[in-house]
Amino acid sequence: MYANNLGERPDVVRADDDHMPSQWHPGEETMHRLLQVPYEDNPTVPGLPAAYGPWMSRSPLVALGTIGVDGRVWTTLLGGAPGTATVAADSVLRVRFRTRLEPRPADPGAHWTGTDPVLEGLVGDEATNGRGRLVSGLVIDLEHRGRVKIAGRLHDGMVMERRTNTTPSETSEPIDVQVNVAVDETLGNCPKYLNKRAITPYASSPQLITDSLPLPADALALIGRSDTFLISSRHGAHSMDTNIRGGAPGFVRIFSNSDTEGVTLVYPEYSGNRLYQTLGNITSDRAVGLTFPDFDTGDILYLTGRAEVLIGDAAESVLPHSSMAVRIDIEAVRFVREGLAFRGTLLDPSPYNPPVRRLAREVGGSGRRPRSADRMLASLIHKLPITPTISRYTFRLSPGESSTPVRWSAGQHVTLDFSHRLDRGWSHMRDHDPSSLNDDFIRTFTVSSEPNTSGSNVFEITVREHGPVSRLLSRWTPGSDLPVPVMGFGGEDDTRYADTQPDTDDVVVVASGIGITPFMAQAHAAHESGLALTLLWSIRAEDLALAVDVIEQVGHLGMAITVFITGQLDTDGHAKARTLEQLRARTYIRRMTESDVKAVGHVGRRQFYVCAVPPLHAAVLGWLAGEDVRFEAFDY
DSSP 3-state assignment of 292? Predict the structure, then answer.
């Protein structure tokens, strides 16, 4: 996940036909063409792989998008505790929660009304066996920075039977509601701009403040302090998409809010995974729904309107220092006091968040993106080439003007800002390097060295050359100065081997290529803690020097290591394979298979950690349905 710049795709096993991704629709293809994105397979998988089930059941929040009873696109945010989302059946996501609804007076007992425009559209519809209205969703775990997108159609939505003789209209207490979604496709997303929060349930009493435009002062203030919002979009009558956008507080700017100009918001589109599913939808169908949650007060702002993607000159003229932005003209609103059934405590802002960019009309069209003077710096002090394309880099930390010393744990990552070295500013076209037009040159790498308990300020990263940042590192020569601002160290608890559940007998690590870096940092600590660690590693023949390098460091620990070598071995490759066997690693010149993975450990008492390229990642998820699988995306 954190090991290389833009994700490598070595020759590894591909998912079976049941998990092959769908192709891009015309709107997405338009975005790819406009931004000159090289063609890659769509990583979206059909249905809902059962392996996502355990993770989803642990995640406390679910965002849902649909077409409301008014024909507009709306988005909501539900939950507050684990168990909000569960896999109810094959490719059926069940979302269960408590809310306040009343029978619609014109049709009591059939449809319901309340403060949430999404629930009005979903609850009470007749069961349609997956042929109902379009639904999209996002299962979210902010505390561990995880999210998985789903899209499909409503299977059914219902108010559960009450155990008393009262009806919902006779009481103001919350009622249990259940929505089942027939899932057509699923996609795990990177956590790049998620601001880390602890979510706790809260007994709220929703109250509609306004459903009229322009927005009142309290709603404007909510947008002004928001660091997160949800957005839903649609591809005509075919599909929908719900996703999350994050940044520093105030990253969404209020362009206008008046009877004469209307209500318009603008936000920057930061560098991401370049799938452009939301923007592709907007390109073909401008209808969107936004939700701004206030995690402190429980207030929620529902907005719906029409969006436009701004690229190049169009973006720069509205939001300076942005190569891409989205403008949204708001058509309807619901501002609800205490509409959230939870609260969220901010734990850690995303280290990826750029400084807030103000509108041109706010700054008079001038001003450059500020730089932080108080960030810690990491200076490159050593380079060790391992293969022709993979090297290990050693950095020494030095404090900024007001920064404090930091410590990191085994398995965590470091986020470095190379923009001062590589960012050439905005330009209209850059045919020789088109990807740099939408590149912030901020990269995250797994720290591949173990933390030094003696307080050393030195760390290592192991990187494949792939993109402008890794090329910059590869050109470094000893004695030259290359200080890089450090945006932070991070990493989630549920992807660290040391946090394995106490009833687990076996920890199985599945890695491919440079995805071995989390293992490199954690192997010794895991061994010392008494964990029974097994490594299954798929690697290309030309990268065997990396396998030798890593296993020489950990082979003496006595753990079971199996290396699957793909590609053709030359004389040197055969020699390195023999070296691996001498280091007591088993080697196979073939792809990793389902039986290889399932043969390790004891069913029900084993835990899997996966850091692999998308095809192997998707395959492993399919193989391990119902197992405890922790995973790190490979395209962070």
Answer: strand
Structure-derived torsion over alpha carbons of residues 110, 116, 118, 121, reported in degrees to the nearest 10? 20
- Is residue 83 in a domain? yes
**pLDDT tens per residue across span 372-421:** 445 789 999 999 999 999 999 999 998 765 556 667 888 888 989 898 88
d(CA 244, CA 288): 13
What CATH number did the domain enclosing 190 receive?
2.30.110.10
Q: What are phi and psi of 267, to 5 degrees?
A: -135, 150
pTM here?
0.74
Are 474 and 532 members of one domain?
A: no
CATH number of the domain where residue 411 is located: 2.40.30.10
**Strand-pair partners of 186:** 45, 150
List own/partner pairs for 200-203 with CB under 8 A and 24 or more apart.
200/80, 200/342, 200/343, 200/344, 200/345, 201/80, 201/81, 201/341, 201/342, 202/80, 202/298, 202/340, 202/341, 202/342, 202/343, 203/174, 203/341
- Domain end (from 455, 490, 525): 490
DSSP code at position 115: S
The last residue of a domain, from among 435, 461, 490: 490
Selection from 54, 43, 280, 254 nearest residue 146 by Cα: 54
- In a shared domain, residues 211 and 73: yes
What gap in Å lies between CA 96 and CA 114, rounded to an integer?
17
